[in-house]
Every structure is written in structure tokens, then in C-alpha cells.
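Need C-alpha cells for this chain, all 456 residues.
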Amino acid sequence: MAKAGKSQFVCQNCGAVSPRWAGKCVACGEWNTLIEETDAAAAPGSGLARASRGRAVELETLQATADTIARLPTGIAELDRVTGGGIVPGSALLIGGEPGIGKSTLLLQLAAAFASAGRRAIYFSGEEAAAQVRLRAERLGLSAAPLALACETNVANILATLAEGRRPDLVVVDSIQTLWADALEAAPGTVSQVRAATQSLVRYAKVQGAALVLVGHVTKDGQIAGPKVIEHMVDTVLYFEGDRGHVFRILRAVKNRFGATDEIGVFEMVADGLREVANPSELFLGDRLASTPGSAVFAGVEGTRPILVEIQALVVPSGLGTPRRAVVGWDANRLSMLLAVIDARCGVSFAQHDVYLNVAGGLKITEPAADLAAAAALLSSISNVALSPDRVYFGEISLSGAVRPAGHMLARLKEAQKLGFKGALLPAAGELDASGLKLALARVAHVKDLAEALGL
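Here are the C-alpha cells for all 456 residues:
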């Protein structure tokens, strides 16, 4: 009988290991996240208990000795954009998102597209029965796709299934938190089980050259559950974002070894699944009331794609001792800094007003170039004067009040011109070849010039 492994307590939030149980994790500060786990001991005669002498490996140069591996197009243009042109064979992709956001729907459409193109795709479901997956496929109109389906959570059984027959081109596992390995005496979803299952599946993908897609649950903070080492083990990490109150879904790349990061793909949730949105700017601006004060259009860039989105501000007198600051889709600390700069450099005080800022459409903006559009919306709301409906804004505002240049200015302006806008308010600094543009460009160097340019 093999000797039992050593017992230890592992934090399910950050992966920190403790020799004894405690109510609070000393690494991340979360409560009631330490769970006892036992590592299986090495089998007698396996050689794992003693250190291996190792063997010499062959060294190579940086020069390519073989043809470049071609990407596999997914059949979904927005997904190809996020991944950098398609999925690379032998790569591992991790996708996370809130429950009900559409992860399983997207991956079922992806697997069906692979199967319909003549490739072998296998879909392992650990959370749903086969009848449930078939019901979703029927609703999406994918029942005729030659997709191989299995409902299994044992890692050994999954690897044995993959070893039979022709090598699959795509393997989808939904989700990684439901898998478990026989060698570990821990419940499915724990740190050790998730780490072991991911390592086994990634090793199979690298050796066999099959593309692997894993679904990961997210925590209350929106991060993929489990230790960060899981994200380091895979090649690409995608987050599926969106608000259930909106039909838009945004697929964002936060890590990509084969393409650009911070690239996004936009989908629309409809009755028959997720539909690609080729021009998201038109949808984000579709229901805009241009005559309302506090509305400004921000010309932003997500990855390599220019996107126009409406920033809405509402400034009302406050009856509270401490005025309220509420932000949706933007950084709350960025708003506090912007209000302080406008107060100090322009003399416009928000100390007696409640401030509400919203990015329309459910999009989350992290780009600092949104400062100028947010400032224009705030000044418009507090003065109750509507901005010009055919003008876009972008530029970063520093603590000194200076308006700093933003990248990809020409791409932003071309997108605005394509959608019918007539003018733009942009930073005074920065080189720009505006020879082919028909926009009326107004440049501002300081936040003081903003109010004057707006006519407020």
C-alpha cells in the first residue's frame, strides 16, 4: 500500500499553502478559503521519489528549420480577430466569464464550425448532460454539425478518449473546475485538482498538436478562479465581458503569445446564439440622444480597432454632506482625479454636486485618452448646455491640466468620419497627417481651453 501523502491547507483564492488551518489567508486576506488537500505519494519503483540524473537535450538556433505552423481559422471573424488570425495548433486557450454570459454558447458555435469544416472537434462537458448540450445545439441550429460530444469529468478518461481514433484538431473542455484526477485526494475545483488537470491537458495539446480550449469560472472580483499559475500555463487568456442588461458581449484578450493583447471582439446575444458585430461603433451610438446635456462621444481604440462610444455624465446638486460619485464602465479613481483637475485648473467646483458617469453599451474603458471626453461631458452637464452632436473627443489630461497626445489619432478620426461626424476635439500636441480628412479639427493644449472650445 502506498504511503499517504502529506496533508496541507491550500487557499482556493490565491493558491498559498499553509501547514495548518486558519480562518484568514495570510497571503491574500480572504476568509474561509483554506481547504485541506493531500498530495498523492509517488508509487514504489516509479523513480519519482528520488532525483533524476536527467539527460542532455538537443540545442537549437533561432533560425527556423521548418515551415511556420499555419493558424486554424475558427469560422468566427470576431474570434479570429481576438486570437490574432485564428487558433494555433498545439496551443492552449483559457476563456473566463461570469455565469450565463455566453461562454458555452460561443464554444459550441466554435466547435460546430470546426466540425462543419471537415476537422475533428471534441466537446467535453462537465457541467451539463448530453441532452442539455443537444438542446442548446438545436436552438442554435447546429444539430447537423458532425461534432463529437462526451460528458466526462475524469482526466484519465478524457485522455484515454483523445488517444483513440484520429487526432482531434480541437478539444473543448467546459469547464476546467469540474475535472478531477485519481491521484489527488481533493475535491474537484480545488487548486491542486485544477492545476493537475490543466497540466495534463496542456501537455497532451503540446505533444499531439491539438488546439485546446478550456473554460474557467471567475471569482466575485471577475478573475479566473484558481491560482494564477493556470494563466501562465496556457498560451492565450480571454475574458468574456458584458452586462446582462445589454445584448452586447465583448471578448477581450488579456494574454496572447501569438497575437496582440487588449484586442476585443464584439458579439450580440440574439435568439439563435451569438452574432458577430462587424461595426460596434454604430451599435454603441445607436440610441444616443444628442440634444441632452452631459453626452460626449469618445473616439477610443481597443487593441487595433477604433471604437466610438458615448460617455454620459449627470451632475446634480447634492443634499449630502459628502457628495456621491458613481461610475459605470470607467475607473472611479480616474474620475476623482479628473474632478480635482477641473476644480484646480478651471475653477469649476463639483464639491456640492453628485456626479454620475456612465459608459453606454456596457463597454469598460481603461484607456486614459477618455479623459477629454469625460471632462467635456462633465462640463456640459454642470452648465446644462448640450454639446455639438457631430463632434468626437479624445485626449489624456494630466494633473497640471495639460492635454497630452493619444496614440492612433488618425485611426480614431477616420472612424469618426466614416460614421458621419463633422468635427473632433483633440490634443494640440502630436503629429497628424490630416490631408485626407474632412473633419473640422479643434486642438486644445490645456483643460482651460476645453471650456472655451465648447462655448461653455
